[in-house]
Write a structure and sequence with these properties.
By secondary structure, the protein is mostly helical. It has 13 helices and no strands. The radius of gyration is 18 Å and the shape is globular. The two termini are 24 Å apart.
């Protein structure tokens, strides 16, 4: 990789990592499902100018809008409201072992003892995190983040099963369908959304813009341009830095406490994820 591309890979990783702290702050002001819907409004408003609706892709767009938009992001944003950004950044890495499991079950990919060991190690790490006294009361949110990771794992395998696809084009159009689903879910499950938005500090719009423009349009654009030109093995190390930077953003930007238990549990999760990722030959999609 050239020096320029190392810089771009690092930039994308930072954008993905800081997004956890941004989400944490945003859902502290505005109900999470409403925030998620607004994020996809920003994504669609930015990307639709550049990408027409992919031909013959109505079904995949709808499926991804439900699984990635409503299930993954909806549960992630709710879950992030109840745990530290550092914890959220670590737990969502379970998407990698879930993706390996779905690839084995649905695509018939080989699932040897190496990947099995990686999956077990990753879940042991999350079990250690969930067993901390200060997280016992947040187990509901932990479970939502696990479900978020499950959805992410499935949608990655689903996207692979439909063949070559422009991810940014797919993202633009699934955002169009995800936003109204999330607005409806917010209307049914939440209250005072508009009032909360109007009462929020002015920088709430900057947070929404960051999620939609920086952490989605710019970061994914960089990421997939690199994956198109380099082997997956060269990109994997940067993907593994995303949860580390997510945890650091929570500590540095939000003043979260990093305990020994969180360090150990997080390290175990990352070891398990690394074992799986380093054996993978398919594209790596960071959780956001």
């Amino acid at each position: 990789m050239s020096l320029r591309d190392y810089f771009l890979a690092a930039l994308a990783t930072v954008l993905f990592g800081v997004n956890y702290a941004v989400i944490k702050v945003a859902v502290g002001y505005v109900p999470p499902l409403f925030v998620t819907a607004l994020r996809f409004v920003f994504v669609a408003a930015v990307l639709l100018w550049f990408f027409p609706m992919p031909k013959g892709m109505w079904k995949p767009v709808i499926v991804v809008s439900v699984v990635q938009g409503l299930f993954h992001h909806g549960s992630m944003f709710i879950g992030m409201g109840g745990v530290d950004a550092a914890i959220g950044a670590i737990i969502t890495q379970l998407g990698t072992p879930f993706a390996a499991l779905f690839a084995w079950l649905l695509l018939g990919e080989k699932f040897g003892w190496y990947r099995t060991f990686g999956v077990v190690v990753a879940f042991v790490g999350v079990a250690l995190l969930a067993g901390q006294p200060d997280i016992w009361e947040a187990n509901y949110y932990v479970l939502l983040l696990v479900f978020c990771s499950l959805s992410w794992g499935y949608v990655n395998v689903y996207i692979k099963s439909i063949g070559p696809v422009n991810i940014l084009q797919l993202t633009a159009w699934f955002s169009v369908f995800a936003a109204p689903q999330l607005f409806i879910a917010s209307y049914v499950l939440e209250q005072g959304q508009v009032e909360a938005l109007l009462a929020s500090p002015y920088y709430i719009w900057g947070l929404l813009g960051y999620m939609g423009i920086c952490a989605t349009g710019l970061a994914y654009g960089i990421w997939y341009s690199l994956l198109a030109r380099y082997d997956v093995a060269q990109i994997v190390p940067f993907a593994l830095l995303t949860p580390v930077l997510g945890a650091l953003s929570g500590i540095i930007l939000l003043g979260e406490e990093m305990t020994l238990e969180k360090i150990v549990g997080g390290a175990i999760v990352l070891v398990g994820v690394a074992i799986i990722q380093l054996r993978a030959k398919r594209a790596v999609i960071p959780a956001d």
